[in-house]
Write a structure and sequence with these properties.
single chain; 73 residues; mainly alpha; 2 domains; 0% strand; elongated
Length: 73
């Protein structure tokens, strides 16, 4: 990605990796017609009671971020 920012050509990267460069105007999507459809995101874990605190902390942290991010797309 750094080579593309420096003007060395095109690159293919995941959208989340180029967001900052796209916002800054240093990268742009040039083959928009060839962008694949987004894939669904799932958080899968084994059900346990009680839910381990590390898992609960991760879910509490990740869920609103995923919802926000997916709403923007």
């Amino acid at each position: 990605m750094l080579a593309a920012i420096a003007g060395a050509g095109l690159t293919r990267v995941m959208s989340y990796k180029m967001d900052a460069a796209k916002q800054a105007g240093t990268l742009a999507i040039v083959l928009d017609d060839f962008e694949p459809e987004p894939l669904p995101v799932h958080i899968v874990y084994s059900p346990r009671k009680p839910v381990p605190m590390k898992l609960r902390a991760f879910l509490n942290w990740m869920t609103p971020r995923l919802k926000t991010r997916l709403a923007l797309d």
